[in-house]
Amino acid sequence: AQKVTQAQTEISVVEKEDVTLDCVYETRDTTYYLFWYKQPPSGELVFLIRRNSFDEQNEISGRYSWNFQKSTSSFNFTITASQVVDSAVYFCALSEADTGNQFYFGTGTSLTVIP
Amino acid sequence: EAQVTQNPRYLITVTGKKLTVTCSQNMNHEYMSWYRQDPGLGLRQIYYSMNVEVTDKGDVPEGYKVSRKEKRNFPLILESPSPNQTSLYFCASSRGGWETQYFGPGTRLLVL
Fold first, then answer.
1. How far is A83 from chain B (nearest CA, A)?
2. Is the confidence at residue A104, as pLDDT, over 70?
């Protein structure tokens, strides 16, 4: 079974629209860490955020915000007022503290922002 | 500059010809890892290492070998490459297994 599910394979939005990328994870650990990475067309992987399982506070960083809900095992990512530069593949990832070793990535969501 | 470097960046080879992709980090990180990225499958972990001389299998280790003789280096070895190992490979490092991973630029491998 997939540890991290990103059900949205591709999303297209028009510039300035808001968009939410979904991430659902599966773990039995009480301590775990969740991540989002961005992969722009140039191919590098850029770290966006890391959250631990004990911190359910939503986080906002500029136009980016993250909604962590343990009750639904979700860690969704919202981009407000999207821009063309946001076009990229976005990956959600999970690391479990009990093993503390393996990283599990989702299959990614390809976001295209149309000018 | 803190970074993870990989070499080569691009490689075309033939089935069965042994190859090594090097990975080096200058951040004194304990943890290093290799991933492959394939369309529709995301990133899958091949091997990881928590410290020198300690390596473990990830989700897709078949056909790959690694070694961690020095803290900064973590080479990926394909003893007998096959076409199904054609992929984009990323090396990453972090302070620990649950810490933020920093990725190299990627190595695009084509096995004919």
1. 24
2. yes
